[in-house]
Amino acid sequence: MRPYIKEFFTHVDICVMCVLLVVGWTVILPHANEGTIWLALVIGMAGYALSEYMIHRFLFHMKPPKHPLLLAMLRRLHYDHHIYPNELHLLFLPVWYSLPIMAGPTFIAYVVTQDTVLTVAFVTGVISFLLYYEWTHYVAHRPIKPITPWGRRMKKVHLWHHYKSEHYWYGVTNPLFDVILNTFRDEQQVEKSETARNLEGKADSRY
Fold first, then answer.
1. Cβ–Cβ under 8 Å, residues 48 and 126
2. Can you tell me whether residue 194 is helix, strand or coil?
3. Distance, CA of 166 to CA of 197 (rounded, Å)
4. In a 3-state reduction of DSSP, which class is residue 124?
5. pLDDT value of residue 133
6. CA-to-CA distance for 207 and 193, rounded, in angstroms?
7. Model confidence at 130, in pLDDT bands (50, 70, 90)?
8. Structural contact between residues 24 and 124, judged by C-beta atoms closer than 8 angstroms
9. With 90 as the cut, is the pLDDT of residue 205 above it?
10. Is the separation of the CB atoms in 130 and 139 below 8 Å?
11. pLDDT tens by residue, 47-63
12. Backbone phi, then psi, for 186, in 5-degree steps?
């Protein structure tokens, strides 16, 4: 297990997020006795949990755009990951994507709270859940047996998404939004998709 932990935490995109996480906790810990700090932290985590599903389903699985730059971005962010699901550098969200995508919610959090520490707490919650997502996703694609039954279950579900059908099981850390939005299915009742490993090939499909 130790080599995989080292492999995970030495990846540049993970390193950057870990540094930001430490900075965030350094700012908010002196205010740990304030309930609003923990509320902001939880809201940030919940917000990322929702965005995990929504972005995966509606952005990463959108029909291939015609613009070559957008197509290249989606290939790096997700299309190529379905072609090469165990390729290490494709497992992680690049910081050139993660940091800008967090900028909007961060700005909104500051406008709403007018408080720098609360905003930092919100962003720290986002980054905390992002790293949880990254680890869960990493474990799903590496030869690692998760310690908990929950972890083993989520690994199995995510691999269904890659090898059975890309039209279901978008949640990586949890199946909540799949259940709510009707994209969770009994694996035995789902037909194997011909485009699970080739998202660009579904341009003419109903999805």
1. yes
2. coil
3. 8
4. helix
5. 98
6. 12
7. very high
8. yes
9. no
10. no
11. 999 999 999 999 999 99
12. -65, 120
| Rounded distance between C-alpha atoms, residue 181 and residue 177, angstroms | 6
CA 106 to chain centre: 17
Residue 206, token pair as written in the block? 């109903």
Q: What angle do CA 18, 23, 29 make, to 5 degrees?
A: 115
> pTM of the prediction?
0.93
Distances 92 to 43, 51, 87, 150, 205 between C-alpha atoms, Å: 23, 16, 10, 21, 28
CA distances 63 to 97, 147, 167, 193, 202, Å, are 19, 36, 12, 16, 7
Average pLDDT over residues 152-177: 97
From the list 20, 17, 28, the residue with the least C-alpha distance to 115 is 28
Element (H, E) at 70: helix 68-74
Closest of 97, 82, 91, 88 to residue 162, by C-alpha: 82
Alpha-carbon span 77 to 92, nearest angstrom: 9
| Residue 142 CA, distance from chain mean position | 16
